[in-house]
Amino acid sequence: MSDDMLRQDRVIRPAHYILLRREVNDTELPGFEWDPEQLEVRRDWKGMYNKFFGEKDAYDRDSSNVRHDISLELKRRLDAGAINQNEVTKKSFAMLENATDGSYKRIRRRRLDRQFNRLQVKDGGKGMAGFEKSARHRLKGIRFALNFVDDSDDETEQ
């Protein structure tokens, strides 16, 4: 694998995940340093949180807009008699899942594009689309599994 491909792979499939409560992402870790003599890892915590929550906010805005558009479209079809209420219910689940996946994909791709520009990667990682898809699929699986995590360690009162 060429040096350029190795850099692309590290951006597309980082060797870490950041998990905060029920949110997970593979957002970059700014200021990451490994000190093998002290067996210590250092990172810019504030920068990490800013990147993590900045991407989460962008996703939330994007997915909210998409959900709104889907609601308007389904209402338009229902009002026009093109579909009935049962079809609205069925279609809304599939459309919302696709919208969620699309929002994660768009927001993550924007981050990857910024990282590739910073690294001066020629094709913006487009030649590694299969790797990018597998990384997104892995994140989706982790997000799904988090739905089954016991919240007993949450700080909320019982």
Task: Kindly list the characteristics that best describe this protein.
158 residues, mainly alpha, two-stranded antiparallel ribbon
Write a structural description.
- With 158 residues, the protein is mainly α.
- The protein has helices at residues 3-12, 45-79, 85-119, 129-145; strands at 18-20, 23-25, 33-35, 40-42.
- The protein has a two-stranded antiparallel sheet.
- Helix 2 (45-79) runs antiparallel to helix 3 (85-119).
- The longest helix has 35 residues, at 45-79.
- It is elongated and about 70 Å long.
How many individual β-strands?
Answer: 4
Lateral strand order in the biggest sheet:
1-2
Overall mean pLDDT: 84
H/E element string? HEEEEHHH
Global outline: elongated
Assign the structural class, choosing from mainly alpha, mainly beta, alpha/beta, alpha+beta, or little secondary structure: mainly alpha
Strand content: 5-15%
- Uncertain parts: none
From the alpha-carbon coordinates, what is the Rg to the nearest angstrom? Answer: 19 Å
Helix content: 55-70%
Sheet of most strands? 2 strands, antiparallel
